[in-house]
Design brief:
By secondary structure, this protein is mainly beta. The protein is globular. The protein has one helix at about 105-120; strands spanning about 1-5, 10, 20, 25-35, 40, 45-55, 60, 65, 75, 90-95, 100. The strands form 3 sheets. Strands 1, 2, 4, 6, 8 and 9 form a 6-stranded parallel sheet that branches.
Length: about 130
């Protein structure tokens, strides 16, 4: 679901927007959505304090939470899988997250392909039909 918060509503970098937000995902406030962005089930993108930008072909995976504090914007680049804010081409592990290595060109290509997969994959979910058990 997309929500307006205190006069701020999510926007798209172009029209018509060709991305997807899962029915159980929440996108609130000053969120800028790029081309073919996907926000997956249970994820929350909460920008009531400052802007969150999601770049083209990026995706926020299940149950991830992106949130900003006042005066601190967040920018997720293009072709990002998982929606983590990290230095370019880095692998982050742990809690709190720490950069454990920098990716080589082959790994970067594989992650780009992964992001492209999700840009295509979300389209299969756009016409989900709610059912009752």
């Amino acid at each position: 679901m997309l929500y307006k918060f205190q006069g701020h509503l999510p926007t798209a970098t172009h029209q018509p927007w060709d991305g997807w937000v899962a029915p159980t995902a929440t996108v609130i406030g000053q969120v800028e959505l790029g081309r073919q962005v996907s926000v997956w089930f249970g994820a929350v993108v909460r920008a009531e304090n400052s802007k969150i930008k999601l770049g083209d072909f990026s995706n926020v995976q299940e149950n991830a939470v992106l949130h900003t504090d006042a005066g601190i914007e967040m920018s997720i680049g293009n072709y990002v899988t998982e929606g983590k804010v990290i230095p370019d081409n880095s692998v982050v592990m742990g809690s709190p997250g720490k950069v454990v290595k920098t990716l080589d060109e082959d790994s970067i290509q594989k992650l780009t392909m992964s992001a492209m997969h999700y840009a295509e994959h979300f389209q299969k979910f756009q016409d989900l039909e709610e059912v009752q058990l």
